[in-house]
Amino acid sequence: MHLLADVTTVAGYVSQMADRGMKLATIRRHVAAIANLHQLAGKPSLTTHEALHVVLDGITRVIGKRQRQAAAFTVAELKQAVRAMEPGNAHGTSGPGFNAAGVCRSLSPF
Description:
By secondary structure, this protein is an all-alpha fold. The protein has helices spanning 7-19, 24-40, 50-63, 75-84, 100-107. It folds into two domains: 7-63; 75-107, no CATH class. The longest helix is centred in the first third of the chain and has 17 residues, at 24-40.
């Protein structure tokens, strides 16, 4: 069983995470997890409370910045990954019957 928190406790926790240097995305993930526990318990979400919005907005102004977009996976990198999985490759999986398409099909939900 989880104990539910009031908004002042969550706001203090959020402020403490910011003071410890946690990134904005991490802080928001923690807030979402807390809100999810409240929702599962049938209680109102803390994320709609104005006091928490004020704290999060202040943290966003101070430490917030756009997350760096990861580079796209290129065709050349895909080919290199597939070659690495070919049978007999020292870094890949060896043995009869292994192929990347089969692995992809086995992971597909369809």
